[in-house]
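During data preparation, we tokenized the protein backbone, and the record follows.
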Amino acid sequence: MASIKSENVDDFDSILDSHLPANVLSEVKQLLYGSNTRNLGVPDDVLLKAAVEQFDVKIFKFDAKKEELRPPRIVRVGIIQNKIVLPTTDSILSQKNALYNRIESMITAAVMAKVNVICLQEAWNMPFAFCTREKHPWCEFAESAENGPTTKFLQKLSKENRIVIISPILERDECKGDIIWNTAVVIDTDGTVLGKHRKNHIPRVGDFNESTYYMEGNTGHPVFQTAFGKIAINICYGRHHPLNWLMFGLNGAEIVFNPSATIAGLSEPLWSIEARNAAIANGYFTCAINRVGTEVFPNEFTSGDGKPSHKAFGHFYGSSYVAGPDGSRTPGLSRIRDGLLVAEIDLNLCRQVKDVWGFQMTQRLELYAKSLNEVIKPDYEQQIIKSLTGLNL
């Protein structure tokens, strides 16, 4: 059988749709995604705009039980995945402006679909150039989280449309020696900067040479109280760390966004699992966003693995999705095309699932706090009970 290049595979659902009969397909998808999501269909005007602008749109709904004492708390979240627009050899200003235009069009579609909170992908306003280890010109993309051109651009859209926008950027900390951070800026419905969160965990894997540019963040695990619920941002590599997800939950998050940039051949087997697991374990909604496309850079770089040098990072496989606290999730967006995924969620589902499963009641934080406090000591000894047979491997 001939092999298929990763960048040519559209999405998992299209493969199922083309190979399974309808009666089997519905059962398979229920097993894969759970039974609590419905495809709402896309309004004609949104479909038309997406067709003209060449991006996909999908809209799903998560249901919660009707309660007697609490009214439904309905929120529409939108997540956007996209390719860079211009070659990495173009001027920085041209690249950023092209991305501004692209994202404005997709945000407009999200507003037409009545989205309340929008999250963009990691470092959305630039190529993901950290593979190169070159400081010039890529550090020039860094800008102020509070007053930079990207924040000002999105502030206008937030205020005009009364939406919350999460904007992950490369931050230049002008008040602290011009150092750089990987940061998500939260812009409120009135256009003000509600706050920011800096990436907690930095990868040293393959071509992800991010610590050449910035180090681990110093903002803890903030949760932002908005008109549309309590939201948090677990940036990219932080999704591999269960305690990172845990702390956002302990701080009260109801929706945690995971803006990412990750490639096929490395993380794809983990992608559909991690954010979904986090939603289940912590009793909140998760929104996993990954950029899409293959980015090529002017100069060759190596991965330190003995293989030939190259100019392309790898294929960013998109596949963005939303997961609920009950373990259900939406199908993903395309692996190869730009897309907007909208999920209508009822935040009451968070408490309802906690009541059923009792994970928060039974999690024994005091036990693990005591154990972890011992683990971090230099003289810690592992709690291993050894066999007396002498046959240990």
Summary: Residues 300 and 311 are 5 Å apart (CA to CA). The first helix runs from residue 12 to 19. The first strand starts at residue 37 and ends at 39.
